[in-house]
Model the fold of this input.
Amino acid sequence: MPFKLSDEHIQEYHTLGYTIFRKILPPSLIRDLRHVTDKAREIAREKGGPQVQRLQPVANYDLDQQPFIDYAELPELVDAIAGVLTPRHQHGNRNFFGVLLEPAEMPYCTAWHRDWRDNIPGLPLSMWDEVLADINLFNQINCALYEDSSTWFVPGSHLRRDLLREAKLFPDRPISGPDLRGKTAEERERVCLEYCRSMPGAVQLHLEAGDFALYRNTLWHMGNYVPYCKRATLHDSANTPEFVAWSKKAREAAGKQREAGIAMENPNKVTD
Ligand SMILES: O=C(O)CCC(=O)C(=O)O
Ligand SMILES: [Fe+2]
Done:
């Protein structure tokens, strides 16, 4: 059945902070993308070692670009994104989009975070805070080529700043992940899962091959990875000219702060 956008997709996107276009990629495109991302995995591991998380942007590497172009131009996707957001929001940006991969050897996870606020050292947090709800900014994409249950979200958290219980859970910056030192693969897998579940209201995203998740990267989220689940998930954004301009400005400001010795501002700093 061809994909059909519904009112629920739009409603969910704004209230939960994410929506999924189920089976929007046709099987022939999944086949071509699986083929090229197998090569991307080899390049990523040569370059970044066995635990590497991604190759990004794929346009910078010696890979057949045609499947990525077909993905960027897929009319059903262009229409669905325009339906939830606007026709000005464009995916498949060649200087950004990449592929997320499973680790070759050991389970691990990222820390819980909101993108930019918690993973760009030096970013003046007032810059993020004032545009947190701007729909022209922060629209991100995970498009799965194999089943993928790696990503966790706190639905609705994109609509607000941190709750007290979240601030108490992660009072420091940078936010720590679980302590994996000296642990076996199975122990690491268990500890990472417990870390995912330690966040109140956390839900695990389940994508099947050809599913496309559009999400606000301002919501609390994280990735949790095991080597036995093959992963090739296109990682992309639905960009606007406003976002390109904002991210350039934000990176410059973060660089200046770092030069001045400011590593990471803490939004939850206790001041009494
Ligand atoms: O692997 C994922 O799906 C999430 C990754 C992520 O949030 C990040 O690297 O910032
Ligand atoms: Fe992230």
Observations:
- The longest helix spans residues 27-48.
- Residues 100, 110, 115, 119, 142, 150-151, 221, 223 surround 2-oxoglutaric acid (ligand 1) (CB under 6 Å).
- The mean pLDDT is 97.
- The chain has eight helices and ten strands.
